[in-house]
Amino acid sequence: MTYIALMKVLAAVPALVLAVLLAQAPARTRTPRGRADAGDGPILLGTDPPGKLRPSPPAPADAGVAQRDAGPDEVHRELQALRARLDTLEQELAASRQTSQQLQQLTSVVEQLRQQVADAEAERQAELQQRQSQRAAVQSAVDALYTAQQQLQGGNASIDAELDQAQAAFTGQARRQVQAARNALRNRDLAGARALLGAAISDAQAGR
Fold it and tell me: If 0-12 CB within 10 Å is exposed, 13-18 middle and 19+ buried, where does residue 193 land?
């Protein structure tokens, strides 16, 4: 091959290569998408370069509780109100029970005091009635001794009934005076007996 022919061949090579490349370019653009292009691989979004994606920070474990506590719904608020009302009622009930026990104790004390007052009043009434009866008996015995004195003044010594009545009603010195008058009658000392009956009347009226 001559030098001129060689230069012609070399000059034609770039054009041939360019023609081959142009012929192959449309074939590559029409090549069907393979499995790798079908979207099975990971799709990277955002501005992070591949291999340097930053994962989202994990949510704290009590995030749900904090969210619920931060803003209770209507049911939660009603539950809280009911619990507060229940606590108040329980406190009122405990105070009421304590007050009821104190009231029962006070009522028992009052009943005991009432009974004591009633017993004391009954005893006072009994004593009063006894004193009234005693005074009435003494006055009746005194009247009987006045009658006995009149009988002795008339010479009648039959006054045993009057003397028995006086001795039953009188106490102390008055009773002893009646007993002395009885002894004087046994000695038929009517004047002495009459004087002793006068002394018994004075002692009985004075409460002696």
Answer: buried
Ramachandran area for residue 107 (φ above 0: left; ψ -120 to 50: alpha; else beta)? alpha
Report d(CA 200, CA 179) in Å as an integer: 9
Q: What is the largest CA-CA distance in the chain?
A: 218
In Å, how far are 79, 83, 86, 104 from 93, measured between CA atoms? 21, 15, 10, 16
Residue with tokens 């304590």: 98
Q: What is the pLDDT of residue 29?
A: 45
Q: How confident is the model over 112-140, as pLDDT tens digits?
A: 888 988 999 999 999 999 889 989 999 99
Nearest to 169 by CA among 140, 206, 189: 140
Range with the poorest average pLDDT among 67-76, 136-145, 165-174: 67-76
Judge whether 139 and 173 are in contact, CB under 8 Å: no
